[in-house]
Amino acid sequence: MPVLLRIAFRNLKEHKSKTLIIGIIIALGISILTIGNSLMDTAARGIQKTFIENYTGHIMVSGKTDSPLSIFGMQMAGATEKVPVIPQYEKVKKYVVSLPEVEAVTSQVTGYAGIELGEERGFVILFGIEPESYRKMFSSIEIIEGRYLEPGEEGILLGESKILEIEKEYDITIGAGDQVILNSFGAAGFKIREVPVRGIFRLKQKTEGLDQIGFIDIQSLRALEGMVVATASDFKLDEEETKLLNLDSPESLFSEDDIVETETSRSEYSQQELMGILGGGEGGTGSITIDSGAWHYLLIKLKNGRDMPRIIAELNSWFDRENIPATAVDWKTAAGGMAMTSDIMKTVFNIAILIVAVVAVIIIMNTLVISVIERTPEIGTIRALGARKSFVWKMFALETFTISVLFGTMGIMLGVIIIGVLNIIGIQATNTFLNVLFGGPVLRPSVSSGTILSAFGIIVLIGFLSHLYPVWVALKIQPVKAIQTEY
């Protein structure tokens, strides 16, 4: 090995120009890879932190469905398809709370509604929440006018961005204390609800799309979503009421003898009486009431995020054992397409780097092949002196790996230095998209051990691939012909 090392360093020194060309290509490629992956990894960690701490927690539990599901509802569902409620909610919640790894739990219902604005109509995403547990678990809501929702209180919190949008587009002012009319149309039909605006809020962590959210009391949203239960009980009909069941012919329905004129002193009915007539009141022989136990999601925050895969597996296993059609997913699935942004960008970036790496390997191969051709007499002499093919292969492999490791390490160091400078300076998010991607208004990238290890892996791969063809060319050289060749 010492002999091979001396030969390798001597050859690299004698062919400085080719060594520098190959080395610069490797160093630049590896530095770009290090910088790019560091930026993407830091952004991914920022998005993860944003959603876990403000919107999704680590785990989301929901009812099973064939459509992709996030905290924003079904992503590929029709207007008539409803988000499933969590079956046996109380039992599920009791089990989740009993897990020692769980730090906090809250529940949520998601819906969409129009806001009546005079003759105009706006749009809002609605999160029906438990005010106390939601605020305890998430700290994203900052009240700037009015106040927060109280437990059991009817009302809605509208975002500052949504209010500004309404004022600009419809020239209508809405503030805390105003009444707004919400209406929705879905699987449950057309629903309408009037609720007071309890407060105006802004999100401490501004995130694309989430400024359209309105936080509403759970019962109002359940009513809008048609989350009701029907009850029925036996009741008796008197003789007068059953008389029509024993008619001889349909014509007898229209007998003048059966028409009786009556007078009533009442022309108005109370809202409660009308609800009873329409089947919307409580009690009675056939009533429809809001399902006070219906929830779309159970959001779970863990004491240690590293326990997330294990707890998800444990929850899904428990659901199967208890025959509960529910499922537990991680924060990324719960966040939907927003959390996929950094992953998609990282994938695109790595594909681009892969293409560049292929081109670099081809350039390095061609440069090494030229070097092999120039060294044909040397190779022939070494072979004539008794060196085996394995010696020649090791000689070229060592040269290639020396260049790759030496300049690759320089590239990693350059990347680390640039990332360190960017960390100190900070990269400002100039728009909402970058704010989401950066996980905040400023991105301060850092280099992880995983990024460095992956860079070294790429270095080894480049060195391995680059030496294959040149070595194959070198081993084809016949010793006798090589000695007779003049250059």
Describe what you observe in this structure.
With 487 residues, the chain is of the alpha+beta class. The chain folds into two domains: 2-52 and 340-484, no CATH class; 65-230 and 290-324, no CATH class. The protein is built from 16 helices and 16 strands. A hairpin with a 2-residue loop joins strand 2 and strand 3. Helix 13 (389-425) runs antiparallel to helix 15 (449-475). It starts with a helix and ends with a helix. Mean pLDDT is 78; it is low at 230-235 and 271-287.
Give the helix/strand layout.
Layout: H1 2-14, H2 16-56, E1 59-63, E2 69-70, E3 73-74, H3 89-98, E4 102-117, E5 120-129, H4 131-137, E6 141-146, E7 156-159, H5 160-170, E8 179-186, E9 189-203, E10 213-217, H6 218-225, E11 228-232, H7 239-242, H8 271-277, E12 286-290, E13 297-302, H9 308-321, E14 326-330, H10 331-335, H11 340-374, H12 376-384, H13 389-425, E15 427-428, H14 432-438, E16 442-443, H15 449-475, H16 479-484
Parallel strand pairs: 5-10, 7-9
Antiparallel strand pairs: 1-13, 1-14, 2-3, 4-5, 4-8, 4-13, 6-9, 7-10, 8-9, 11-12, 15-16
Helix pairs in contact: 1-13, 2-11, 2-13, 2-15, 11-15, 13-15
